[in-house]
Write a structure and sequence with these properties.
Length: 285
């Protein structure tokens, strides 16, 4: 993150913003495509054009299971030492991990014809749905703790410095000692206190989200006008409120992400066991 003392050139910041926008656009397109495929399969689930025991339907089960196993490549890649030569960056494997986490379940849903089937099939399908849902939840937590896909955590200390910088720049505009500064400073204390406990973090995320947006709307009305000083003040206020929310979210979602890591791997192990039992049952009986 760029600090006040070491700000990146505008061209570099613009290129990073552009890359992030492209990634978000591609992600939305992929999600839309998968959602459309799921909707199509659900609407045509009663048609018998896919047989899970023969032909394309059987192949989709193999492909889907293989893609789910390939999900292990990302956590393995993360544990490779930086000095060790490895294929692809961690960011690349994270993107691939997310893509496989969508395509694998999609193939298995088509393989199952969107039905539970026998007991062993229902258990394997249910485990897959739980793991896929857990992956989406983890991705949401990850987006609140990391910048893009780079894997660099949002440092709480850097965010605190960022908020201090916003306040200092507002003071430089001649707004020190006014009602605005009195309203802003308690928000920073509450955002920092979010890291003291899980309960405080949850309350800060919800409470600050509401308070900052309401206060921002009121202050924008108070600072209405076309003067350069007022325009700068409104822009700084928007950045400050965003920094407050990000600080509170970091403390809260970082706890949730740590807890999620403890639960996701056991769920994946259950999925693998259920898939193995399903394969054995299908080929033996």
């Amino acid at each position: 993150m760029a600090t006040r003392a070491h700000r990146l050139p505008a061209s570099t910041e613009h290129s990073r913003l552009t890359a992030t926008a492209v990634e978000r656009g591609v992600s939305l397109l992929v999600l839309a495509g998968v959602a459309a495929a799921v909707a199509y399969g659900w609407l045509h689930r009663h048609e018998r054009w896919i047989d899970p025991e023969h032909g394309i339907g059987y192949a989709l089960g193999i492909v889907g299971g293989s893609l789910m196993l390939l999900l292990l490549a990302y956590p393995l890649r993360k544990r490779v030492r930086p000095a060790t030569r490895a294929v692809g960056t961690v960011g690349f494997w994270f993107r691939l991990h997310m893509l496989l986490g969508l395509l694998g379940p999609l193939a298995i849903l088509y393989h199952s014809r969107f039905s539970w089937g026998a007991l062993n099939s229902a258990f394997a399908l249910g485990a897959m749905i739980v793991v896929s849902t857990s992956g989406l939840v983890g991705r949401f937590f990850y987006s609140r703790v990391h910048r893009g896909y780079s894997g660099r955590k949002l440092e709480l200390r850097a965010l605190r410095e960022e908020m201090d910088g916003k306040l200092a720049r507002l003071e430089g505009l001649g707004m020190a000692g006014g009602a605005i500064m009195e309203c802003l400073q308690p928000l920073e204390a509450q955002a920092i206190a979010a890291g003291t406990s899980f309960r405080a973090g949850a309350w800060a995320v919800v409470g600050l989200g509401i308070r900052t947006r309401r206060l921002h709307a009121r202050l924008r009305r108070d600072l209405a006008g076309g003067e350069r000083r007022l325009v700068q003040a409104r822009a700084l206020l928007a950045e400050y409120f965003e920094a407050v929310r990000r600080t509170a979210e970091f403390a809260f979602y970082d706890r949730l992400l740590r807890l999620w890591h403890l639960l996701h791997l056991p769920l994946f192990v259950v999925l693998v066991a259920a898939a193995v039992l399903h394969i054995i049952a299908v080929h033996m009986y």
